[in-house]
UniProtKB/TrEMBL annotation:
The lineage of its organism: Eukaryota, Fungi, Dikarya, Ascomycota, Pezizomycotina. This is 4-carboxymuconolactone decarboxylase-like protein. Transmembrane segments: none annotated. Residues 44-105 form the Carboxymuconolactone decarboxylase-like domain.
């Protein structure tokens, strides 16, 4: 990390900062604070907003775990945020909807949005989530062809949630990489 992590547990005296810490700890549960939290808590107001937003993305959307985690894991790959990959690819695996070959494709495929992942072996709805994630992450603008096909598989609410997930985790990955949270910058791409 390019900055020191705050102490774990943080030693906040201000009641407002203590309240932020409690909210972050509550969302993390038994596993406790992670390195990302210990970086964010340098700024309790930022940590609080982050905790609320990412908490909504992770815990309160209608998306199946496999769709959400595919988007998050793919953002990690595209942005070389290996700390993020190592945190989210296990959740994608545990969801059980995609086999190891599919997860390797998510890890190793070049961006797929220009050809809609035509060479992909992923089931169509996952292939389209990956193409959407690739377009939104690499080019920001999503081609009409990708968007129209995505609409055939997902409701308006789900598309908003996919879009918010991709946007949120582009923010997360950029924070992780810029500050080298988890000391993963410069590491080779994981094998799986």
């Amino acid at each position: 990390m390019r900055l020191p992590y705050v102490p774990n547990p943080p030693k906040f005296e201000d009641p407002a900062e203590q309240a932020v810490l409690r909210r972050v700890q509550e969302r993390r549960g038994e596993k406790g604070l992670i390195k990302l939290d210990l970086a964010l808590l340098h700024s309790p107001p930022v940590a609080d907003g982050w905790n609320s937003f990412i908490g909504a993305i992770r815990q309160r959307t209608s998306l199946p775990t496999s769709v959400r985690e595919l988007a998050i894991s793919r953002v990690a790959v595209l942005n070389k945020a290996w700390y993020e990959w190592k945190s989210h690819s296990p959740i994608l695996r545990e969801a059980g909807d995609l086999n190891e070959e599919a997860i390797q494709e998510i890890l190793n495929s070049p961006p797929t949005h220009k050809d809609l992942g035509s060479a992909s072996k992923l089931p169509e709805k996952y292939r389209l989530v990956m193409a959407f994630t690739d377009a939104s992450t690499v080019d920001v603008a999503v081609p009409d062809a990708v968007f129209e096909k995505l609409k055939k598989h997902f409701s308006d609410q789900e598309i908003v949630e996919i879009t918010a997930t991709v946007a949120a985790y582009n923010c997360v990955s950029r924070f992780l990489v810029a500050l080298d949270v988890g000391e993963q910058n410069g590491q080779p791409k994981p094998d799986s």
